[in-house]
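Work Package 3 committed the consortium to producing structural models of liganded targets before the mid-term review. Because experimental data for this complex are still outstanding, the team generated a predictive model from sequence and the ligand definition alone, so that downstream docking and mutagenesis planning could proceed in parallel. The input record is reproduced below exactly as it was submitted to the modelling pipeline, together with the SMILES string for pyridoxal-5'-phosphate.
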Amino acid sequence: MSLEDKVQKIQESFGALKALGRDPTSLEFDRVTSPTEAELNGKKMILLGTNNYLGLTFDESCVAAAKGAIDQYGTGTTGSRIANGTYGLHKQLEQRVADFYGKRSAMVYSTGYTANLGSISALAQSGDQLLIDADSHASIYDACRMSDAEVIRFRHNDPDNLAKKLERLQDRPGDKIVVTEGIYSMLGDSAPLKEIVAVKKEYGAYLMVDEAHSLGVMGAKGRGLCEQDDVEADCDFIVGTFSKSIGTVGGFCVSDHPGLDALRSISRPYMFTASLPPAVIAAAQQSFDQIDANPQLRDRLWRNARILFDGLEALGFKLGPEVSPVVAIMLPGKEVAVRFWNALMVAGVYTNIAIPPSTPNALSLLRSSISAAHTRDQIATALDVFAQVGADLDLIPANKADRRRLAEAQGPLRIVTGGNMQAKPVQAPVQEEQRSSAAKG
Ligand SMILES: Cc1ncc(COP(=O)(O)O)c(C=O)c1O
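The resulting structure, written out as tokens with the ligand in place, is given here.
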């Protein structure tokens, strides 16, 4: 196929969706004025799709630290970690991350994406087997492509299926490395880590958990799902990102394994890209201090998550299986998802749209992420907009009595996995058998 043909095919596949409104892949904010507000074409928007879980992007101490680092060290390192791009600052941040997790050592990467690429491809080599959850993030799938190990998928959040796959590998030589996430980014559901840990121990496998959406969000100290489920000692490698709750950019892998540092000389995404600029490092360090000092941020985050989830559920929307800071509305198709996303934006609410092939089970989703920085008023305003737009698009009943009936028919409230909330009865989750093997974006 010629380059022209390829370009035309891409344009055709996106053209129909773009014709329904704005292009979701090239939105430009005029100004972002706070963790929860921005201007788009001169219009004020409530930001409900930023992954800015703790609202730290505008935290005064983080901003001041970043400014101070620029004054002292300049705007960038202009080099990779293994050349001129390692400053004392990078080492300090690695120590800070290791101390935060109570682990022996940490490696800092330039993004969470490269942290997965670099850690997975370096740890899993020829003759090894990588066992990844079918709904893994694109960075985990891409890491598999980069690794020379054999790649085996197990059904999403299904420890029994993982056990079956490991059982079949029992007599095979090579390390078995299981990769899962904490909170999954599309539906906001979290991994059954205790059960996964039991399986990995039974079969002598290693476990890596990507806590991208759970760092700062779950656990008494904000260390994530491993902390919350009390399995930190059995989790061999934790990967994470600074681009969500930490409010800046960068990624890391942290571990008690004495060999972690050896990966610095074979991990290509660590070796062959520029290191994080000083301002980013300083801001990230401050964010960890804020997480330590302000556990109430997590309480506020989960309170807000509950308000948004309950509010959308009461309106009659079909949501993901758990209350979580990621709240996904399941929609009947791509086109309606694009229309919904556009209409919300016209009404002043920015969310994320997620459609196949970037979603598990080929779902079409309107994905919101809530922040500790959202006010009750902002959430109430957003819910009013969801109600109006949802009714306009015939997704939910227009009147309250019908909505109440629908919500009652949909069953009890779902489980709450984080924060200090009481657990609630679980509603039937998405059938794991039905999930597709599509990689997520
Ligand atoms: C589970 C998961 N891992 C890794 C990443 C990549 O993080 P970053 O944005 O820092 O590259 C993301 C980002 O969305 C993610 O959701």
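Reviewers should note the following from the model. Residues 111-113, 116, 137, 139, 181, 185, 210, 212-213, 241, 243, 251 surround pyridoxal-5'-phosphate (CB under 6 Å). These observations will guide the Year 2 experiments.
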